[in-house]
Fold:
Amino acid sequence: MTLRIVPLYPELLSIYADRGNVRVLEQRARWRGIPVEVSPLPLGADLDPAAADAILIGGGQDRDQALVAEALLAQTPALRSAIADGVPVLAVCGGYQLLGHGYVDQGGQRTPGSGLVDLETQAGPDRLIGNVLVEVDLDGHRERMVGFENHAGRTTLGSGVEPLGRVLAGAGNDGVSGHEGCRVGRVIGTYVHGPLLPKNPWLADLVLGWACERRGLDGALEPLDDRLESVAADAAAAIALAERR
Amino acid sequence: MTARVRAAAGAARAAGALSRLTGRGGGTTMPGHVLLRLAPEALGELAGGLPDGTALISATNGKTTTAAMLATIVGGDRAVCRNVGGANLVSGVASALVARPPDAAVGVLEVDEAALPAVARAVVPRVVALGNLFRDQLDRHGELEMVADRWRRMVDGLPAATTLVLGADDPVVDALGDGRDLVVRYGIDDPAVARPTRDDAADSTHCVRCGAPYAYRAVYLGHLGDYACPQGDHARGGLDFAARDVRMDGVAGTAFRLDAPDGAHELRLPLPGLYNVENALAAIATAHVLGVPVARAVERLGGFTAAFGRFERLQVDGREAVLLLFKNPTGANEALRAIAGDLADSRVVLALNDRIADGRDVSWIWDIDLEGALDAAAGVVCTGTRAADLAVRLRYADLVADRIDIRTPPEAAFDAAVRDAPPGGRVYVLATYTAMLDLHRVLAERGLTRSFWEEAR
Structure:
């Protein structure tokens, strides 16, 4: 029973070192003795929902985003069916925006998104750039999420969509609501890269646990020694707080 | 020169002297700030006073080394006006023009990718050498495509008499020569030293005209290589200066045959790695445009010594320390490849800072091909403001935890690595810009290396 991690279009969607997220999921499975393989979906190929246990969507250059949006739109039915089967989806930055209905750029031009999540993104006058610290409530306990954001888009969540967390330092979805990211079932969207998972191993294990369950494996993962990750996250949190805008 | 510019230049020189006297720095940017405030038109006038014209050099990777090589070559028979110490924004260029030697005949100016359009507008250059564009400091420069667009507009605004020297191995740079008469292209042409595949972090992989993925006959570094669009819309241009029969000898250096317009030359470069082959080609081609015969350029490069933090080598307590700057995934990958064969028994210091000059966003370390790259080293010490990020990166690259150490500040990491290295052994330091500056300052205080702003004086 091999766990299959599927990054979408990594040749175009890996601008903020999104391959780091893939690497972290892969290694944390391997270190626990769970057989795992990474099967990237190339541009132009069709997603087989039965052959994916976790789907990752990264961020791309603005120029490539339109190319990707078109390809992704064609895969929306397959994505929908994967999500209905319990496959977790982790979407970062540009990938997060593509989860929504669409993206309106500074010139007013609209690129349609997949509409998998009820959210909409509009380009703002400037880019929101800097270190981020976010507080996430996760099934009764509180986790800390750290990383870096760099986005022009301001994302507004639909009324039924929960944010992933509350911004303690940084801009988050739009710089005003105090919200960062979205979470609908096992679909998570966020602007936080850095990459996201190395300094937030709890989130990596959340996604990995879901992927294991979906594959029919035990989703309760044995703990790993994450002391280095804690030191790195402490440093990143301190920097984010010190430069709070 | 107008009286206003002369007065402004005098004030700027005084400010620079004051800055050095008060120990605030080498005066590498302060005079420029003063000059631009007092007489914004001064840049063009001062550069116009250089009888042999000015060469502007820009690239994501290699601009400092290329400029240093070019200054070595043209400096053999003329006084050169150049900027040093990475002071490559408009203020640094202005400072260099203010502080130029009185008999300076030619300008050799390294320019930041983002600052290049403004500098090219102000200084009417005789030659502009453009090497490559890689993703680099997204939080500061923006995406690669934005920088490429600015370069395209900059080239459109250049006078017809300006020669472009282009790194043809980079598709985006190669295409900048479209529709221009005075273009010189250089590149590597030796499939024997090509990489089997493109790096995961490769950037410009799709045709600049139609968007189809390029087919590569050879990949040399990152997305640099011999490429062609499968639909026939764009292929690497003909090479006026080509490196063939490349022989790499690890840290010791590289040799190759240079095929130039006047025939073949044999070049021995005391610097390792294919990226230094690219730098040497750019410097020789640019010098040729400035009137230096190829044979003379080749001879002068044979005695070239490294620029600040670019394979500087120094002796410490019977060990050899090798200092390498790293600032983006491609540069880091090339540095790691250059030392790969010489890692046995050595210690490695990795220093990652996240100050503005380094890039606040450190996510790029995940685009470095670190998997297996340091396995042969006896130990790795991580340091800098983001030392722990590096340690986490190494953990996921499967480097054994007991060989990873974290120590700050950089000099403490350096001292530990030197102490742990066997006598006669090597310590490699890979550091981001400000981490290298910090370490360099301490080493200079100990008399181990000169201050970087003294180097070209």
In short: Residues 452-457 of chain B have pLDDT under 50 and may be disordered. The domain at 310-454 of chain B is CATH 3.90.190.20 (Protein-Tyrosine Phosphatase; Chain A). Chain B touches chain A through 34 residues (CB under 8 Å).
